[in-house]
Amino acid sequence: MSVAAKYRMASLYVGDLHADVTEDLLFKKFSTVGPVLSIRICRDLVTHRSLGYAYVNFLQLADAQKALDTMNFDVIKGKSIRLMWSQHDAHLRKSGIGNVFIKNLDKSIDNKALYERFSVFGKILSAKVMSDEKGSKGYAFVQFQSQSAADRAIEEMNGMLLRDCRVFVGRFKNRKDREAELRNKTDEFTNVYIKNFGVDMDDDRLKEMFSKYGKTLSVKVMTDSSGKSKGFGFVSFESHEAAKRAVEEMNGKDINGQLVFVARAQKKVERQAELKQMFEQLKHERIFQCQGVKLYIKNLDDTIDDEKLLKEFSSFGSISRVKVMQEEGRSKGFGLICFSSHEDATKAMTEMNGRILGSKPLNIALAHRHKERKAYLTSQYWQ
Questions:
Q1: Phi, psi (5° rounding) for residue 123?
Q2: pLDDT along the chain (383 residues), means of 10
Q3: For the chain, which domains are there?
């Protein structure tokens, strides 16, 4: 085994660090169990603020193991730290092998309690209760060293009472798998969402209207505090076929002079997935529209809008997009122009830079992409 490989094996990840924790403080703490080669707190490249985690490299593997066994969940500056072996293999980190997802956790369960409860099933690499400034979010992740330990935890803990809460314990699924499941479920829906039927609708009328398509399990018109309809509701059918017929025949139908909207009822996570997909598509479309060269125009007169800017620059070549940035309907004094070719953009920048448009001289430069701007700022910071 190479020296470098040996040091990697003796490396610990230290998470949930307080922002004020320093390398010197960590060195003093971990040196009590054995010689420490190095400590690195990961920081933001620009602000240099701690990202809340660090790596500790011990000289001896046994010392790293001792620190993991005796210091996990110790409190430093008021926060309980979380230790785990440093995993350099990105494939293993992302594979989901040995990962377990737990939800409906009692809010009093912290990382230490979670670790202690699940460690009976096998060696744990990481145990993390998700939280925010208000405390636990009620769900967590546990990564076991082996898939067999994870399977035992799922088999014995799923549906068990844990501090008066019946927990769900299942295999961790990455985002792609969850989104694929949601897409498959869209073809098997039984719940229908109805809106725009006015304030006169109640549960009985809605049930009478939709029960002709098949047996309904529940019907609910959403109401305000006074019991008045909010104009939308839900119908749950026994079969997918009945729900599908209801959507096909009722969507867009005139009810009391209003065209109702009827569609498959979606969970919040499904709506978020669809919105994400839509935004990604719009993003790709914008990128496609600006495959050429973007010019950044500063010092714009308040009277200059998209149309005027396009008129001034259209003589230099084909333009795919023009945008004057605004805030509350007023120009912010800068904008972007996308030219189809580098030659047209160069010509426009050469001839228009410094030219007075309205009452101000234009300031024109090549617009950099986000990654390029970040790299530039980082280089400036280190300089």
A1: -65, 130
A2: 52 92 94 92 85 92 92 92 76 70 91 91 89 88 90 92 90 73 68 88 91 92 88 91 91 86 80 70 57 81 90 87 88 89 82 86 76 49 45
A3: 3-85 (3.30.70.330), 91-172 (3.30.70.330), 190-264 (3.30.70.330), 290-382 (3.30.70.330)
